[in-house]
């Protein structure tokens, strides 16, 4: 492809093309002269084609169905033929095509639909056959009783008998003869032709992987994906999944590429868009890089066009039929990429454009559930489609716009009905909305018009989309109210862009004229990119920096340059930009930050930049802590296209020049907006001259979409598109999605089904934003990586309003802590105060869980100076003292042995952090904290999370008013109460006694009052307070009850105080569930909580017991401390089997990756597998437990806290029991096995091996 002056001439020619170009559908069989470039986005439904003639700049667009086998074999090739004026089977002349640049969802759809390679073999290290099935052991949705983990992509696993240590020592040599024999059998007898190879530590020590890969290729496997070639980075789970994805998708991708190449002239320059936003040659296009191929083109187009049109900071907004994609871009920072993603349930470690998707699109179904207006996640799809499509479909967002008059049926394509020649069916929409309005009016206690209902659904949809944008902008520290533009594309984006922007406080919207084909347009603007990365994992110091950090960068530079030259032999090396980065993190954490590392940088400069960047993003820096260079990356960029984004002018409307002229509408019509009904001008884009101004409210129609200019906005037609600007005084910036105008004449405390859904979503969003802030700013692995934390907001009385679904055992229990702070401090609370506590006798759970509570004071105006809300965050701290490292002793008998007891300590006073008082509190006691600086860092993170919650709540008050906000705190609680009452009415009374391994019993009698829809849980008969540490404070019992009844509601409802209003707990004093000082409680939180949960399920008879333990394992010495909980089997229930190898009920913490575990601790993981066949028998079988085997390389103290080693998990309705768990130590010197009790400890030395088998779930129903 030519660059320089020739490209500049072509760009100028493109700019000169008339602005009347329109998407072409019909075939023109007159051959077209010239040499063309084709930029194509092959989507799941439509294929978009942008064609540009090299010399004249002639510009055309085309949209075709991606699948239309009656008319053509491939939509991309058909699009090329149509533009060139060729018949269907005519060969494509070589002189007519200069290049083809494509994005495709072939790989994405194959992954979503599980239609990749049918037979795929996964090759792993012996002992790790289930490593990808287990993953990180957490379940996707914490309230699902029927736990569904995504299926793995491979068909069978082959375990290589080999092992290499983290340092590269060969522990078991690879048996090449056995590998050759076995792989040959899989190929010839099993029919396998594709394999994925991921061996432990193979990313760094590659020889075994190389030899296995070579054998597979020699045997004739057509697809061999090897992990160190696919993604040479640490983390076996993510790297293994990515390698499997590559092997699963590459064959189907290769078949598609070959199909296209056969139709193109020989030697045609065919390039494909990668997920990272760069083009690559068809030969180098791989499955792992194709997952976001299409959407990446849209981000590239947005970035390139926005910068050229004067919008350097943008939020992209791509709203289609079923979902909306959003992303953030700042020209000064470049593309934002994520290096670890979950796509269709599969972990992918590959650089991808950071795009967030929310299930709100034009086809999202709108429904009234009796309380709230709900939008999505269900979609009407293409068939039957929205109600207005004349196929009997449900009401959707598209229909809402028809009802409000924002979509004009007469100006919309008439392609509906049996003969595909009728307009949208507005009458059907009106009829359905009238029925819905009657139903909603009865609940609201006031008349709601069909238009008001439709606008209400639009407000809810805007809420969801705005919250999605917050996740990729505001939650990451970007202030979108300052200098940002919302860049809109997609079929439905223009109808909602102003509302979304206004709710976020974004004052400018830009609608690209090629919005309907923008992803295809981006293919032509993209650069050729080769991105190379490698794990470094060395301390940042002068001694290691040159060889261990700069050395890999130099090598990666050569590899990246070589990759570009291989793809583009015509690329001038001087024109290739090289971007060098180091991913840097603090020792002991997993969150690395990308820092530029240009030539000449020193270790000291990189360290300084890291501390400054960490302080800027997270609010603190640990300058005395060791810094690790985690990964080196080099990105080689060749911008060889040279096309100006002004080519977009070819697709803009063409009504002549109209600079500064206010356009005259074709007509005016009554439309319903958030502020009520008003007259809106209707304009045709093709009639508007360049520079014309269109005042809102207005509707701008074009052949491929509709743009709504909301009241308070003005639009202007520019060469690059339609720019809409919010008028002064109309700026939003309230809570995301808040309607621009609230229902008229509605009392502040009245229940409105629209506002109920918006407040419900917004309260939960605030809690989720707090959680993200806490995770981002915390230091310890427990919070940052294992996700053992929770955040919540409370009303002025301490009643829970929203608890983000983080850690189940925290659910509902923080309210007690808040109420303790209220009662203990009375009027002695000032703005800027924060209190911390972990006292299990006053609202806490166990000592490592420290809660920080912050009051929210009213500012100017209503209620000024009064406490109006509370926010709180709870995190599991790595160590709070006690007799063992990590503060999880197996045999503690009094609370002081478990750590520092904290009760209502004012950690922040009037905005001043009490560092000295905190240090004294943590260190001047019988068993002090071992690392108080880590506690301080995590506490500062909790305080920062609370501060974010306060800011967001104050935005709500500013927008809605204090009275309405507080009223809806009660309304969302009432809504949750109603949902739980419905679930209670379907239950039956019962009772259950569940014995623990130590002989103690939890007993519960559930009394269901169906008429009053109430439940009483009476724990009379539970064992007395114990001398062990299995005592569970009352908040733990309350959390277990709240969790159980929340799981019985098969809907998305808020987790708040309302969930417990219909439930009475009767917990006798002096029992295991209501201990008093100085009872030990550490196991009560992690173990007894599981027993209480299973006991309630047993009394209700709704499912069998799960593993019933968290299998807490702690080991450490003076240099290392490590804590993990281990998954097991889930219980079965009516209609579903229990899930294997997953965390259940009151925990959902993640497991450390095997390679990371060995990298950071002196241990070796020998085995981690599912205990096949261990699940309880029954019509529906229980989930299986796991085997885990850890070898110690240094002397350590080992502690185990567990249950279900003597009393098995029960089966239900005739189902069999799950298998017991057990654990033991194998001594290196003698080979003897030492069995350990349920709660036990041992001193271990080098070579000693700890083996744990976790319990399985019980079966449900008699086995047929």
TrEMBL record:
GO terms for molecular function: 5-oxoprolinase (ATP-hydrolyzing) activity. Residues 38-219 form the Hydantoinase/oxoprolinase N-terminal domain. It comes from the Eukaryota. Residues 752-1261 form the Hydantoinase B/oxoprolinase domain. InterPro entries: Hydant_A_N, Hydantoinase_A, Hydantoinase_B, Oxoprolinase-like. GO terms for cellular component: cytosol. GO terms for biological process: glutathione metabolic process. Belongs to the oxoprolinase family. This is Hydantoinase B/oxoprolinase.
């Amino acid at each position: 492809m030519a660059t320089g002056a020739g490209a500049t001439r072509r760009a100028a020619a493109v700019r000169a093309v008339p602005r009347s170009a329109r998407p072409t559908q019909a075939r023109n069989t007159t051959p077209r002269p010239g040499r063309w470039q084709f930029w194509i986005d092959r989507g799941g439904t439509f294929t978009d084609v942008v064609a540009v003639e090299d010399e004249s700049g002639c510009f055309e667009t085309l949209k075709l169905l991606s699948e239309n086998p009656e008319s053509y074999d491939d939509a991309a090739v058909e699009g090329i033929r149509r533009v060139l004026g060729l018949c269907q089977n005519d060969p494509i002349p070589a002189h007519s095509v200069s290049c083809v640049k494509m994005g495709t969802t072939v790989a994405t759809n194959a992954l979503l639909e599980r239609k990749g390679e049918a037979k795929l073999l996964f090759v792993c290290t012996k002992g790790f056959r289930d490593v990808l099935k287990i993953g990180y052991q957490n379940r996707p949705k914490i309230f699902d009783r029927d736990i569904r983990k995504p299926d793995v992509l491979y068909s069978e696993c082959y375990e290589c008998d080999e092992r290499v240590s983290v340092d590269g020592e060969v522990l078991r040599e690879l048996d090449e003869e056995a590998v050759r024999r076995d792989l040959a059998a899989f190929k010839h007898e099993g029919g396998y032709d594709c394999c994925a190879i991921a061996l432990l530590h193979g990313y760094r020590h590659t020889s075994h992987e190389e030899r296995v890969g070579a054998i597979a290729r020699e045997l004739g496997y057509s697809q061999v994906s090897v992990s160190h070639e696919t993604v040479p980075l640490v983390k076996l789970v993510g790297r293994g999944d990515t390698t499997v994805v590559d092997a699963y998708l590459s064959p189907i991708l290769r078949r598609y590429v070959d199909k296209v190449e056969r139709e193109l002239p020989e030697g045609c320059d065919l390039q494909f868009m990668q997920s990272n936003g760069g083009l690559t040659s068809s030969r180098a296009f791989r499955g792992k890089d194709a997952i976001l191929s299409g959407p990446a083109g849209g981000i590239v187009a947005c970035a390139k066009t926005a910068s050229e049109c004067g919008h350097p900071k943008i939020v992209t907004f791509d709203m289609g039929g079923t979902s909306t994609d959003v992303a953030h871009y700042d020209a000064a920072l470049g593309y934002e990429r994520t290096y670890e993603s979950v796509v269709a349930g599969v972990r992918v470690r590959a650089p991808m454009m950071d795009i967030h998707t929310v299930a709100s699109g034009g086809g999202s179904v709108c429904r009234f559930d009796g309380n709230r207006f709900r939008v999505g996640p269900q979609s009407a799809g293409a068939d039957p489609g929205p109600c207005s499509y004349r196929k009997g479909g449900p009401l959707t967002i598209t229909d809402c716009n028809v009802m409000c008059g924002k979509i004009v049926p007469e100006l919309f394509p008439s392609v509906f009905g049996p003969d595909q020649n009728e307009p949208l069916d507005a009458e059907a929409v009106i009829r359905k909305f009238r029925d819905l309005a009657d139903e909603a009016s009865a609940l609201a206690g006031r008349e709601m018009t069909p238009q008001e209902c439709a606008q209400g659904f639009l407000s809810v949809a805007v809420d969801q989309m705005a919250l999605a944008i917050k996740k990729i902008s505001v939650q990451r520290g970007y202030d979108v109210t300052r200098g940002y533009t919302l860049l809109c594309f997609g079929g439905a984006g223009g109808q909602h862009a102003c509302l979304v922007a206004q709710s976020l406080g974004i004052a400018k919207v830009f609608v690209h004229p090629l919005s309907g084909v923008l992803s295809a347009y981006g293919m032509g603007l993209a650069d050729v990119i080769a991105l190379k990365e490698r794990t470094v994992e060395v301390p940042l110091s002068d001694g290691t920096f040159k060889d261990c950090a700069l050395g890999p960068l130099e090598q990666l530079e050569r590899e990246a340059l070589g990759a570009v030259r291989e793809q583009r032999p015509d690329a001038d090396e001087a024109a290739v930009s090289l971007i060098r980065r180091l991913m840097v993190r603090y020792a002991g954490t997993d969150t690395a930050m990308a820092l530029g590392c240009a030539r000449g940088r020193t270790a000291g400069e990189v360290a300084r930049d890291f501390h400054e960047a960490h302080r800027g993003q997270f609010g603190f820096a640990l300058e005395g802590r060791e810094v690790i260079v985690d990964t080196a990356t080099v990105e080689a960029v060749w911008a060889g296209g040279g096309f100006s984004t002004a080519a977009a002018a070819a697709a803009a409307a063409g009504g002549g020049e109209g600079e500064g002229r206010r356009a005259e509408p074709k007509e005016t019509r009554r439309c319903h907006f958030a502020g009520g009904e008003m007259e809106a001008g209707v304009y045709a884009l093709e009639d508007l001259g360049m520079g014309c101004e269109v005042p809102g409210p207005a509707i701008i129609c074009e052949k491929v979409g509709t743009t709504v200019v909301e009241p308070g906005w003005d639009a202007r037609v520019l060469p690059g598109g339609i720019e809409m600007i919010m008028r002064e005084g109309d700026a939003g910036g309230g809570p995301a999605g808040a309607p621009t105008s609230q229902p008229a004449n509605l009392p502040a405390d009245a229940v409105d089904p629209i506002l109920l859904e918006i407040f419900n979503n917004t309260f939960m969003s605030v809690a989720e934003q707090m959680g993200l802030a806490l995770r981002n700013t915390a230091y310890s692995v427990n919070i940052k990586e294992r996700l053992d934390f929770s955040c919540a907001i409370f009303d002025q009385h301490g009643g829970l309003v929203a608890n983000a679904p983080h850690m189940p055992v925290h659910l509902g229990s923080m309210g007690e802590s808040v109420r303790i702070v209220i009662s203990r401090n009375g009027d002695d609370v000032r703005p800027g105060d924060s209190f911390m506590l972990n006292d299990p006798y006053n609202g806490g759970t166990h000592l490592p869980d420290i809660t920080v509570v912050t009051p929210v004071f009213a500012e100017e105006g209503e209620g000024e100076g009064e406490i109006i809300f509370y926010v709180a965050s709870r995190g599991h701290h790595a160590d709070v003292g006690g007799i063992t490292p990590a503060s999880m002793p197996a045999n503690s008998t009094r609370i002081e042995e478990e750590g520092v007891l904290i009760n209502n300590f004012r950690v922040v006073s009037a905005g001043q952090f009490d560092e000295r008082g905190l240090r004294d509190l943590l260190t001047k006691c019988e068993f002090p904290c071992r690392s108080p600086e880590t506690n301080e860092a995590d506490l500062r993170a909790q305080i920062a999370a609370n501060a974010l919650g306060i800011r967001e709540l104050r935005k709500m008050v500013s927008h809605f008013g204090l009275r309405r906000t507080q009223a809806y705190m009660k309304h969302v609680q009432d809504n949750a109460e109603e949902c739980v009452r419905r679930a209670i009415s379907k239950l039956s009374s019962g009772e259950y006694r569940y014995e623990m391994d130590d002989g103690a019993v939890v007993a519960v009698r559930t009394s269901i009052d169906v008429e009053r829809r109430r439940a009483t849980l009476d724990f009379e008969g539970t064992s007395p307070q114990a001398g062990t540490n299995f005592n569970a404070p009352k908040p733990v019992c309350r959390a277990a009850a709240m969790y159980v009844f929340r799981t019985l509601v098969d809907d998305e409802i808020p987790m708040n105080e309302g969930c417990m209003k219909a439930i009475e707990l009767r917990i006798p004093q002096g029992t295991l569930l209501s201990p008093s000082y100085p009872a030990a409680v550490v196991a009560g939180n992690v173990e007894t909580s599981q027993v209480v949960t299973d006991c309630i399920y047993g009394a209700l008879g709704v499912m069998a017991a799960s593993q019933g333990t968290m299998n807490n394992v702690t080991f450490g010495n003076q240099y290392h401390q490590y804590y993990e909980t281990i998954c097991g089997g889930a219980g079965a229930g009516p209609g579903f089997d229990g899930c294997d190898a997953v965390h259940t009920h009151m925990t959902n913490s993640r497991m450390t990756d095997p390679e990371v575990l060995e990298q950071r601790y002196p241990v070796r993981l020998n085995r981690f597998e599912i205990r096949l066949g261990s699940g309880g028998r029954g019509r529906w079988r229980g989930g299986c437990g796991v085997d885990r085997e850890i070898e110690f390389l240094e002397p350590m103290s080992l502690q185990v806290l567990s249950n279900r080693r003597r009393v098995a998990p029960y089966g239900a309705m005739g189902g069999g029991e799950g298998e017991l768990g057990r654990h033991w130590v194998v001594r290196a010197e003698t080979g003897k096995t030492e069995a350990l009790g349920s709660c036990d400890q041992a001193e271990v030395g080098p070579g000693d091996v700890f083996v744990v088998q976790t319990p399985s779930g019980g079966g449900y129903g008699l086995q047929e």
